[in-house]
Amino acid sequence: MLERIDHLVLTVEDIPRTVDFYQRVLGMRHETFGNGRSALVFGQQKFNLHQVGREFEPKATRPVPGAIDLCLITRWPLERVLDHLAEQGVDVEEGPVARTGALGPIESVYFRDPDGNLIEVGRYPD
């Protein structure tokens, strides 16, 4: 019945700070739509951004910043990811470590965005 995730919503403290982080650290593209709404676009997906306290309806029952864990897949070798994160001043919490993704084994690193969301960047073996 389902094919893929199209978008999800991140509730954040500060939209410009979030946009800067995801553009600089993860290479996402900022897009505005509707009446000045913001989204972060990558591949065929996007994260719509809601400012905490000014969310759009309908919304989650308890939208709060820092309540999500994301796993994103890269084609970059993890050594390159680690070098990039270091250049951007991002502290790695864990990794590289072996994990299991939707399609099988992956190797991942973990860090946090400005709101404390846990970000996992994983890579499937060649």
UniProtKB/TrEMBL annotation:
Signal peptide: none annotated. Residues 4-124 form the VOC domain. Pfam families: Glyoxalase (PF00903). InterPro entries: Glyas_Bleomycin-R_OHBP_Dase, Glyas_Fos-R_dOase_dom, GlyoxalaseI/FosfomycinResist, VOC_core. This is VOC family protein. It comes from Metapseudomonas boanensis.
